[in-house]
Amino acid sequence: MDISEELPARFPHMRWERDFSLARHTTIGCGGTARLAVSPLCTEDAAELLCYLSRKAIPYCFLGAGANSLPSGEPFEGVVVRFSGLKTLFADGETLYAGAGVTGGALLRFAEASRLGGLEPLTGIPMTVGGGVVMNAGVKEGHLSDSVLRVVGIERGKIRTFELRDCAFSEKRSVFQSGIAVTGVYLQCRRTSAEEIAERREEFRKRRRHLPAGRSMGCVFVNPAGETAGRLIERCGLKGVGRGGAVVSPVHANFILNEGGSAQDVSALIGYVEQEVFRQTGITLREEICRLP
Ligand SMILES: Cc1cc2nc3c(=O)[nH]c(=O)nc-3n(C[C@H](O)[C@H](O)[C@H](O)COP(=O)(O)OP(=O)(O)OC[C@H]3O[C@@H](n4cnc5c(N)ncnc54)[C@H](O)[C@@H]3O)c2cc1C
Questions:
Q1: What is the pTM of this model?
Q2: With a 6 A CB cut-off, is 217 part of the ligand 1 pocket?
Q3: Is 266 in the pocket of ligand 1 (CB under 6 A)?
Q4: Is there an atom of ligand 1 within 6 Å of 134 CB?
Q5: Model pLDDT for residues 136-155, shown as the tens digit of each residue
Q6: What domains can be seen in the chain, in order of their start residue?
Q7: Is residue 220 in contact with ligand 1, taking CB distance under 6 Å?
Q8: How many angstroms does the Cα of residue 236 sit away from the middle of ligand 1?
């Protein structure tokens, strides 16, 4: 049976979408169409679904806010699993729990309203909590991993709690990039006045004003040791260089902007930048972005 009939019939209580546009659900705004997308409403349902997909060898991938993801541009004959149904948010003392589908903005507003500080460096980062944990979102003043107590996830179809030491957080990396679904996170915050939180958030918001506007995935490359990828790319004379409708931002060289191009244009430009930086400096850039099917 066709998966777009089989799966909604097998899991009728989940929200299914056919012909799901990856271009419309990623900030870079390009990509193909997936046969199906689904948003389970609780962790148990998500675990049951992932077990089923694995058992039946049905291809799937995860998607949060799509702010660090580049689709291949090809049609995807599988399922995009989203976590937008997992929106629980609560505070217990100085601990805050957030479901994977909570947006960064909602998390920060809730923390401020609860007088819980510590998450302000995440201000303005487009993300869901799930994607933020997977990518260890943050800025040099602080990352999500600084506040993580434990993560709830699904590994090989089983719901499991990952203590901080199991999460293997580093620069733009975590253990969850190995196909483990993140369904929620417990964060350690500290009691802080609403005024102080608001002030710090404003400070972080101001620092982001210089970032390029337009369709992007944020920084494309991880900073190599002792250097920023942006400065390196700029020194190689690549600001403003383009491929089709994709262009290296003239404002911040580690951003690639999609100005009406395709996923293939963006990918070709990333490849060119990598090649050119290596040719000129001998440095191999590591991609920070995630490739989607
Ligand atoms: C304008 C702009 C500015 C940015 N600035 C910053 C910044 O300052 N700092 C920073 O760190 N990042 C920044 N980013 C990148 C991005 O915001 C972060 O990486 C963020 O964490 C991505 O979250 P997301 O929900 O959009 O993840 P997605 O892009 O949807 O997913 C990222 C990866 O995680 C996987 N994934 C998503 N959700 C789950 C889940 N629940 N379980 C398992 N896997 C999952 C996806 O399959 C993918 O591999 C920026 C991006 C943009 C567009």
A1: 0.97
A2: yes
A3: no
A4: yes
A5: 999 999 999 999 999 999 99
A6: 3-82 (3.30.43.10), 89-207 (3.30.465.10), 229-291 (3.90.78.10)
A7: no
A8: 27
